[in-house]
From TrEMBL:
It holds the Pfam family LysR_substrate. Coiled coil: none annotated. Belongs to the LysR transcriptional regulatory family. The keyword Transcription applies. The keyword Metal-binding does not apply. This is LysR family transcriptional regulator. Residues 7-63 form the HTH lysR-type domain. Signal peptide: none annotated.
Length: 302
């Protein structure tokens, strides 16, 4: 089995000599003697059979070969540093990865802001965001498959912290027959037209949620697909208000209203499925998500 000729310490010393501009400066920063650094680099060059540095005056310069090897060495020492940090994180209970279930209607910019704030403190924790719809979110919570879940109505037996109210607008294309009557007397007119709905991501999606009285329905995976269909003058759909602001402003879609009801509204909440097992990374990210809505974690989350 091949055994490395060089050590990480030798490469770190070489990096320091280059970064700080010479042996004397590096010795001062590393709190080592200049002779020990000279010896380490000389031994490294001897072991490799390549000259890495050449001294001109009182300053050390990289050779062409040294520049190539130094650049690659930085990846190696950084990877080892990250590995050691990960071991330390695991010892302290810091989670190496987190999975977040995001109800598809939750504004992604809010979650992105929270994740951006989390990144500098993340210690390398990997994040997976799973977009879910209705029962799909519930199943992930009940099966303890996620660390955090942003959902509508939480499953029975789970405590949820409210995040925000979300309005749904009833929309269609300006050329659609429904657009001729912006305010409908009741929902019977809707039943005569094609409805675009978003597929429930649950494995056992037995319960349908929302207004689904239309005999004709097309089911798609997300609201982007729904808007593409609507743009062709086909069907109507209930869409989160923040997802159709531009289309409504530009006149690409029109908003319909039913007499006595201008919109549908739901409350989005944050659930920690296993509060008693929640780790420090999950607690931090929870607090950052709540901060987007100026909420504070519940007392028992710390």
């Amino acid at each position: 089995m091949h055994r490395p000729k060089s050590t990480l310490e030798q490469w770190r010393i070489l990096q320091a000599v280059v970064d700080f501009g010479g042996y004397a400066q590096a010795a001062d920063k590393l709190n080592k003697s200049q002779s020990s650094l000279n010896h380490a680099v000389a031994k490294l060059q001897s072991q490799l059979g390549i000259q890495l540095l050449e001294v001109k005056g009182r300053k050390a310069y990289l050779t062409e070969q040294g520049e190539v090897l130094l650049r690659r060495s930085r990846h190696v020492t950084q990877a080892v540093g990250e590995l050691e940090q990960l071991a330390n994180n695991l010892e302290q209970g810091w989670e190496p990865s987190l999975t977040i279930a995001r109800e598809l209607v939750y504004p992604m910019d809010k979650l992105t802001e929270a994740l951006a704030a989390f990144l500098p403190e993340s210690r390398g924790t990997r994040i997976t965001v799973v977009d879910t719809v209705i029962n799909g979110t519930t199943e992930l919570i009940q099966n303890n498959q996620v660390d955090l879940a942003i959902c509508g109505t939480p499953p029975k037996g789970y405590i949820a912290q409210p995040l925000c109210d979300l309005d749904f607008y009833l929309v269609c294309h300006p050329s659609h027959p429904l657009a001729l009557t912006p305010e409908l007397e009741d929902d019977h007119m809707l039943a005569q037209h094609l409805q675009i709905v978003i597929k429930d991501t649950g494995i056992n999606a037995q319960q349908e949620t929302g207004w689904l009285k239309a005999e004709q329905r097309w089911t798609v995976s997300n609201f982007h697909e729904a808007k593409v269909i609507l743009s062709k003058g086909v069907g109507f759909c209930w869409v989160p208000a923040h997802m159709v602001e531009k289309e409504l402003a530009d006149g690409d879609l029109v908003r319909l209203k039913i007499k006595g009801s201008s919109c549908r509204r739901i409350v989005l909440t944050l659930v920690v499925p296993q509060r008693d097992k929640q780790g420090p990374a999950s607690k931090l990210l929870e607090a950052l998500i709540l901060a987007q809505h100026q909420e504070s974690p519940s007392p028992d989350s710390n």
